[in-house]
Amino acid sequence: MAEKKKRKWGDRRDARYVKAPGLQTIMCYLWPKRTDCEVYLNDTIDATELVKYLEKKNASQDYRTTIFHCALIAMARMIKERPMMNRFIQGYRMYERDEITLSFVAKRVFADGADESLMTLTAHDDDNIDTFSKKIVGDITEMRKSEHSTGGIDEVLDKFAALPRIVLIIVVRIIRWLDFWGLNLDALTEGDPNYTTILASNLGSIKCPAVYHHLNNYGTNSILITIGTLHKEEVLMEDGHKEIRDVVDVGATLDERIADGFYFARSLKLIKYIFAHPEMLDQPLSEPSGFDYK
After folding, report:
1. Do 130 and 146 touch, CB atoms closer than 8 A?
2. Over the range 159-192, which residues count as b (16 or more CB within 10 Å of their CB) and which as e?
3. pTM, whole model, 2 decimals?
4. Which of 121, 155, 114, 146 is nearest to 135 (CA)?
5. Is residue 18's pLDDT more than 50?
6. What is the DSSP pairing of strand 242-255 with strand 38-46?
7. Which domains does the chain have, with CATH numbers?
8. Burial of 100 (0-12, 13-18, 19+ CB in 10 A)
9. Per-residue pLDDT at 264
10. Residue 113 confidence (pLDDT)
11. Which of 289, 215, 246, 214 has the alpha carbon at shortest distance from 44?
């Protein structure tokens, strides 16, 4: 993992203060709430080469790597190469995280009313699809062995939920005040998806298309991505002919204050490039993708 930068005045425990351009600074004051600054992106990504890649990989290993696993490591690689996507606004200021963190929700059982657990991954420079997939499979397996909370943020939430209503109201107000100033305790932020770079939802696992999902004003999460069901669709190829391809729908909600639309668009193009060249998922995140941003 890369060495953390030395802290300076104005930094938070989990991020470094970034001097934002004038327009973005004013936007932080005009629209201080993250939900006031949402931009939504919906697109279809060609996953044909990725499907072929996964067929070969899963035939030679004793665990199953999924499209969602690949999407997560692709997001991590995109953030690694596009650091402005790892920024957030809090307390009217812009910050850039020290780490790349991804979170998602996993159901203990695919049934109505079944409990959910919050899972968080930290991406390191030496990570690739194998390390990510093993981590995800291992964490979910351990979580599903128990019918109760697996600890971490789930355990904290269970304790808060048991408080009397008036006490909970007061406690939450204090927490939100601490959140504004970046003073919340590690016990309240570690493992919380509201404090991760990207919060992802694997809707394809429940046969659901990608949907719009709002951001939250609490925490520091600036990007929420939903991955829909893999399906076949007629695609117009670059040479003009049409072809039936494996595709997956993706929906993303972003805080427009962290970067401009041009930066967002190029970040999406990198994700598409990785899906079209899945062999790079075997490379560590520290190795550049080689994508031509022209």
Report:
1. no
2. eeeeeeeeeeeeeeeebeeebeebebeeebbebb
3. 0.87
4. 121
5. yes
6. antiparallel
7. 33-145+193-282 (3.30.559.10)
8. buried
9. 95
10. 47
11. 246
